[in-house]
Amino acid sequence: MRARLEHLDLPPEASFRCFEQAGADQFPRHWHHHPEWQLTLGLGGGGRRLIGRHAGAWGPGDLVLVAPGQPHTWIGDPADGAHRVVTVQFAPERIALLALPEAQPIRDLLTRARGGLAASPATTRSAARLMRAMPAQRPLARLAALIELLRLLADDAAAQPIEIDPRGAAISAAGGERIAQVCRWLATQAHRPIPARAAARVAGMHPAAFSRFFRRLTSRTFTAYVRELRVARACGLLAQGRRPIAEIAAACGFASPSTFDRAFRQARGLAPRAYRRLAQDIDRSP
Predict the structure, then answer these.
(1) Tens of pLDDT, residues 138-170
(2) How many domains does the chain have?
């Protein structure tokens, strides 16, 4: 899928955008990206959201942070009724408050969220009260709400990454070059069987210590991380054309098509063939 670059026009009285979207049937399937960060909260209806190579369900109470340049689209399912989302789009360099020393936790949040972030239910409940009111607020009140939103996300230890970063850039700030080196190595080896002890050798660590270190910094077990790398690669191949599913499974390191199907459904919530159809439908959209 080729994502279109979207240019965002800011109103003269604001440093960021905030708006509500609603639709009776389904949202346009615009596969796009932009250089701004984006927060989107589901208020009504539901369907599927594609962010990078991740596919997930959205509905009321779904709050995600999309990184700059990360392709994305929200698709409404007509069976879920009228759809409503609130979206905030911002560039940190346009908001001087985010350069202050007190905003360091927010800058740390944006470093670790380079693959996108899904907020925990507790944070979403607090954030929803702010976001529902933001479209109708005056500019200064809206700015204060944005800072509070980002503070909530920065304090959300239970937030989950949407996409892993194969280069390790999003987690190297916490773990240094060692974790980035391991992540880069895994990205080149994920199509092969990879024992955890081999990755531990790359990190120069004892396997048990490496396991704890890896899970703390990536929020995933080593096995789950490798499986996600393989599924992400498979998403790219599925979207490219009609290469046989079994061939894609083998090229991505899965032992069999059935193993691939189970892992893909668990990671993306739909079968590989359904993901391919969805990706191709988006690619054909005007």
Answers:
(1) 999 999 999 999 999 999 988 988 887 655 555
(2) 3
**What are the tens digits of pLDDT across the range 215-237?**
887 778 999 989 988 998 898 88
| Structural domain boundaries, residue 176 | 169-219
CATH number of the CATH domain containing 88? 2.60.120.10
Q: Mapped to the 3 state alphabet, what secondary structure does 114-165 carry?
A: CCCEECCHHHHHHHHHHHHHHHHCCHHHHHHHHHHHHHHHHCCCCCEECCCC
Distance separating alpha carbons of residues 132 and 41, to the nearest angstrom: 9
pTM for the predicted model, two decimal places: 0.79
Q: In whole angstroms, give the CA distance from residue 16 to residue 75.
A: 24
Claim to verify: residue 154 and residue 266 sit in the same structural domain = no
